[in-house]
Amino acid sequence: MTNFSLIYSHLATIVPAALIGAYLLLRQKGTPGHRLLGKIYILLMVVTAVITLFITAESGPTLSNHFSFIHLFSILVLYSVPEPYFAARTHDIKSHKFHMLGVYLGAVLIAGAFTFAPDA
Questions:
Q1: Is the dihedral of CA 67, 71, 76, 81 positive or negative?
Q2: Per-residue model confidence as pLDDT tens digits over 42-90
Q3: pTM of this prediction?
Q4: Contact status, residue 57 vs residue 67, Cβ threshold 8 Å
Q5: 16: closest CA among 40, 33, 35?
Q6: Three-class secondary structure of residue 2 per DSSP
């Protein structure tokens, strides 16, 4: 796959994830719909993180002419997403809320902002 098609694949997963994540943060929690959308959100975030690992950085400092600092968010997502999932499964709602907010802020908003920064 080319960088161009990987970027569009990334957009096809992160845009719905961002919208679903915002919806989940603003709406009633614990409903069957919340649980279903939460699982879809987590799946989209994991797929997005995996896709981004294959996108070659085209500006800024790189490692092995492939990875840039923004790739750290991909690793962070893959590391962070299981925690809120298992917290919800064990009914640790406080931990679930904290981690889901962190994943959304870090992986969607902050990483998204970095993609528009020069030399990111």
A1: negative
A2: 999 999 999 988 988 766 666 666 677 777 888 989 998 999 999 999 9
A3: 0.86
A4: yes
A5: 40
A6: coil
CA 97 to chain CA centroid, Å, is: 16
Beta bridge partners of 67: 63
- Check whether 120 has a pLDDT greater than 60: no
**Rg of the chain (C-alpha set):** 15
Task: Please check whether residue 80 is in contact with residue 102, taking contact to mean a CB–CB distance below 8 angstroms.
Answer: yes
Distances (CA, A) of 85 to 9, 26, 53, 65, 103: 24, 18, 22, 34, 11
Alpha-carbon distance 80 to 23, whole Å?
20
Position 53, amino acid: L
Structure tokens that stand for 22 in this block: 């915002």
